[in-house]
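Weekly sync, protein design subgroup
Attendees: M.S., D.O., the rotation student, P.L. (late)

Item 1: inverse folding check
M.S. brought a backbone from last month's batch and wanted to see whether the design step gives back something sensible before we order anything. D.O. pointed out we never logged the input encoding, so this time it goes straight into the notes. Structure tokens as presented (685 positions):
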């Protein structure tokens, strides 16, 4: 973690479509926040693990519809679709871990968690719009233990834009009724360094499966110097999205006939989120810095689904809503999260060695109100069928020290201790109970600068994710004595650059003693202890400057081993973990000159299985069967007419490839066909 104050700094880029060689490093002024990588020139070289950064220039080149579209270009990352919600519900997996609801990846925004909760139910139901981001940091390796539980695969940190002086308007439009309008306004005071701004986004679409959405997002961000060497910042976000999606997908004949109608037209997913972050940064001395983050969020998620009478190869028959019996059920949940995260960095000399120490403490509390409402009509109201009021608390301490054995060789040991308790309370039956756990997570990593253009890095660390409340404590309030998910993770890699070439390669292994796996169908997503599993693979990323404005970038992730080990109630010995393709690769050809930029990119995803039995043949209702490999091609173009006016456009799935991205939770979910968006932005002053 690095502290950022009001300062200018470069950012290194190593993702598809633009590299550190071909993109000008973004120059931006940041308010205090927690970055998991940092902006110092040598920030990457201090991390004993794989790091990928997508900066604002790259986001402009990629023109992604969502943050997940951008993350698809990062090596090691597998993004599964989200029931046609165009990125509103993230399904992100890293290094062969099941991407379902991003439960094995820690998602942050400016260093604050954006999962609805960390210990009650960390299934992710919210993803902020990509249009208000200045970058994305992806960290894989031992350093992730600094940021919390459920980070076995890695940590993803979304970085929001810092307000700029002036007034900017952006508008986009595309097929399937896609429209987006964005207003950015900001200003600063020269007398006290205060800066503040507002970012408002309104977006809607009919979507390619007739499951449209209407989304509003508001971001306020500001800060100022409050004393000598001290800065404060405040961020408030509001998000509201009403999406006509469901757990129900297409049946085989509907998919084969290219049905474009919504398979569950009466289902809806309504999300509202409000959040506040307060950051304080203090340069205590030239060698000591303290950063403190206070975060709060409240997320409401109402998921209304019509009951199913039958499923067949031709479609889904729903229970009629004629007022005679209960036909619609709302799985309605409200989460609140409050925490304080304080980190002290101190550089010092001891025993003849330079040291860079970091100490941190986090106090965290969260609650969940979980209701199921039953209705005899299509109205979003009804009888309370189930009602739980749940809570969890945690205290975490961590320490890490970077020993500089020589100017080129560093060893980085660290440890995190997480104490947490979970309480489940059934309001209707008055049954309640809880579980308590303490987990110790060690790590050790090392970096060796072999030459100015070559660095070796390696780490070994313990991965940890708590059993979520619904499995940790029964409905009767009995502690199930479930072990947390634990793994031993190892990584070795090398990275470097020269004036025309960048590279990063790593091999990795994740050995789970107790992997928590998902079992899902239309009823929802449940978790269970799935036993031992093993993940082994390699990543490679390359960037080459060809000259005359041309560059080529590519990456590949190869995971030959992602299997269950030994007898298990979930997966048989040797069977592959669901939704873990053996090979994922990206290739991009980029040209830029005189304010014009264009990128032609291809993404390949190998075949995969939706179930732990690795069923090859499709069943009659489309929930089982191997998902074939697919290649999709995108094309983007951007042109800066002048310093005020920019125009841009993108065509996704250029060759209109028909493909399946998921058979879960209940049926076939088809990938987006050819779609396009075009727009412009104008900076008034």
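Designed sequence read out in the meeting:
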């Amino acid at each position: 973690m690095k502290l950022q104050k009001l300062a200018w700094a470069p950012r290194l880029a190593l993702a598809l479509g633009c590299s550190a060689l071909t993109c000008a490093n973004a120059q931006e002024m940041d308010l205090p926040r927690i970055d998991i990588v940092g902006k110092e020139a040598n920030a990457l070289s201090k991390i004993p693990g794989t790091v990928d950064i997508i900066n604002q220039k790259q986001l402009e080149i990629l023109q992604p519809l969502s943050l997940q579209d951008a993350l698809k270009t990062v090596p090691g990352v597998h993004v599964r679709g989200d029931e046609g919600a165009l990125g509103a519900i993230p399904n992100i997996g890293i290094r062969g871990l099941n991407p379902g609801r991003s439960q094995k990846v820690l998602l942050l925004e400016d260093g604050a968690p954006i999962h609805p909760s960390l210990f009650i139910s960390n299934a992710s139901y919210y993803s902020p719009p990509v249009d208000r981001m200045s970058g994305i940091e992806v960290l894989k390796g031992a350093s992730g233990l600094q940021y919390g539980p459920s980070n076995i695969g890695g940590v993803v940190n979304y970085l929001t834009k810092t307000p700029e002086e002036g007034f900017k308007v952006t508008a986009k439009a595309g097929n399937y009724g896609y429209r987006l309008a964005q207003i950015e306004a900001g200003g600063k005071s020269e007398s006290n360094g205060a800066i503040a701004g507002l970012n408002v986004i309104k977006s809607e679409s009919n979507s390619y499966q007739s499951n449209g959405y209407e989304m509003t997002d508001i971001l306020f961000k500001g800060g100022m110097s409050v004393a000598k060497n001290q800065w404060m910042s405040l961020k408030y976000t509001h998000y509201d999205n009403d999406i006509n999606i469901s757990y129900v997908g297409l049946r085989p004949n509907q998919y084969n006939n290219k049905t474009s109608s919504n398979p569950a037209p009466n289902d809806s997913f309504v999300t509202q989120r409000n959040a506040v972050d307060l950051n304080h940064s203090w340069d205590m001395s030239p060698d000591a810095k303290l950063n403190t983050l206070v975060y709060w969020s409240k997320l409401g998620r109402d998921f209304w689904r019509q009951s199913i009478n039958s499923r067949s190869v031709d479609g889904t028959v729903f229970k009629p809503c004629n007022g005679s019996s209960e036909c619609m059920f709302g799985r309605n949940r409200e989460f609140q999260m409050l925490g304080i995260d304080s980190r002290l960095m101190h550089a010092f000399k001891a025993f003849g060695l330079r040291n860079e120490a970091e100490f941190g403490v986090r106090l965290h509390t969260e609650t969940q109100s979980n209701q199921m409402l039953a209705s005899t009509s299509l109205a979003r109201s009804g009888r309370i069928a189930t009602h739980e009021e749940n809570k969890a608390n945690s205290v975490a301490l961590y320490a890490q020290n970077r020993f500089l054995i020589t100017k080129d060789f560093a060893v980085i040991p660290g440890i995190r201790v997480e104490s947490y308790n979970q309480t489940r309370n059934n309001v209707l039956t008055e049954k309640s109970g809880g579980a308590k756990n303490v987990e110790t997570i060690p790590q050790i990593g090392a970096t060796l600068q072999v030459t100015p253009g070559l660095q070796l890095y390696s780490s070994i660390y313990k991965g940890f994710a708590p059993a979520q409340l619904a499995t940790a404590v029964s409905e009767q309030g009995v502690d199930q004595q479930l072990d947390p998910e634990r793994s031993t993770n190892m990584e070795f890699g090398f990275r470097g650059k020269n004036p025309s070439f960048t590279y990063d390669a790593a091999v990795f292994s994740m050995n789970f003693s107790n992997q928590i796996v998902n079992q899902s169908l239309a009823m929802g997503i449940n978790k269970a202890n799935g036993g031992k599993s093993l993940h082994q693979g390699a990543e490679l990323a390359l960037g080459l400057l060809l000259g005359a404005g041309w560059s080529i970038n590519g990456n590949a992730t190869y995971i030959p081993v992602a299997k269950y080990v030994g007898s298990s109630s979930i997966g048989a010995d040797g069977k592959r973990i669901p939704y873990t393709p053996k090979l994922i690769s990206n290739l991009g050809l980029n040209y830029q000159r005189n304010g014009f930029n264009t990128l032609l990119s291809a993404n390949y995803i190998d075949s995969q299985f939706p179930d732990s039995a690795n069923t090859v043949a499709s069943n009659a209702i489309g929930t089982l069967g191997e998902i074939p490999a697919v290649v999709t091609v995108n094309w983007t173009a951007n042109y800066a007419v002048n310093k005020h006016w920019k125009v841009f456009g993108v065509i996704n799935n250029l060759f209109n490839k028909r493909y399946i991205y998921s058979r879960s939770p209940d049926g076939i979910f088809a990938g987006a066909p050819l779609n396009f968006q075009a727009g412009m932005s104008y900076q008034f002053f």
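Discussion: The mean pLDDT is 88. Residues 605 and 630 are 5 Å apart (CA to CA).
Action: P.L. to compare against the previous round before Friday.
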